[in-house]
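Throughout our pipeline, every protein is held as a single compact record rather than as scattered files. Such a record has a labelled line for the sequence and another for the backbone structure tokens. The remainder of this section carries one protein's record, kept here as part of the documentation:
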Amino acid sequence: MTEAFIGLGANQGDVLATLKSALELIGSQEQCQLLACSSFYRSKALTLDDEPQEDYLNAVCKIKTQLEAHQLLDSLQSIETKLGRIRHKRWGARTIDLDILIFGPQQINSDRLNVPHPQIVNRNFVMQPLLELDDNLKIPTIDSLKTSAKALGWEGLKRLTEEAQ
């Protein structure tokens, strides 16, 4: 079994319901066990152009899986499709986005998958939830999760209260 961390994000439709459905689907897979989920965080959309987008709702979940990394990627993309994801353009608005952030101690660089996710250190909406789940987490490409998360800070990021979740 490999411990992995999955990033979840959405900014179209009923985002809270979609994220909760994604978590249920991840946890219901035969070869995956959902161990924990961070709080939900509201963040500003990252865009490649100046096209306005709604804020995102983000979270990170921790799983254990018997799947290989590329099999997990296939499974997550199937869940995205099931939940209405249509891939229009990179960093565009979306109903759901599921990213493998960390897959055990592995470092993977393929045409389809890069793990640890290469943008982890630039995204407070990933770092803060990771820190919440495991403040001692060792990430192969990062010296210190705590230091990196602190350096990114909270700009444009808001942790939702339990009542809002």
